[in-house]
Amino acid sequence: MNEQCKDVSLYFYGELDAQRAASFEKHLSSCPQCRKDLAFLRQVQTALLPSAAPEKAVERVLRRPAVGWWRQMWKPVLSACCAVFLVCVFWASVSSQRGLTDERVEWVAYVSAEADAEFNSFAADLAVFEEEF
Ligand SMILES: [Zn+2]
Known about the structure:
Bound molecules: zinc ion
Structural class: mainly alpha
Number of helices: 4
Strand content: under 5%
Largest sheet: none
Distance between the termini: 133 Å
Number of domains: 2
Radius of gyration: 44 Å
Shape: rod-shaped
């Protein structure tokens, strides 16, 4: 076995640089074992090509990503639904707080108007009381 015989698979996969590939091709013309190995590698590659596979097997392989798609996507879809739900809950709580705040503002305005009226009537009473004494 020649030192160059080790390059057969690298040559087959196109991993040799141009100089080494040319050198291996020269070796190939004089080495029956490398020709045999190269022929075997080509046979294996041809056997593994999808076009060589039975049509049903190809269909099964092509159909598989559809199942994989849902398996991969159910978590992001669920998280998106949860996010939408949380936004809705947050929005509902913010808008109900805003309603409460509006009620409080109305109540404070009512109470302070009443207090003003009471204070004014008390001030008037006090003025009358001070005039008397
Ligand atoms: Zn060889």
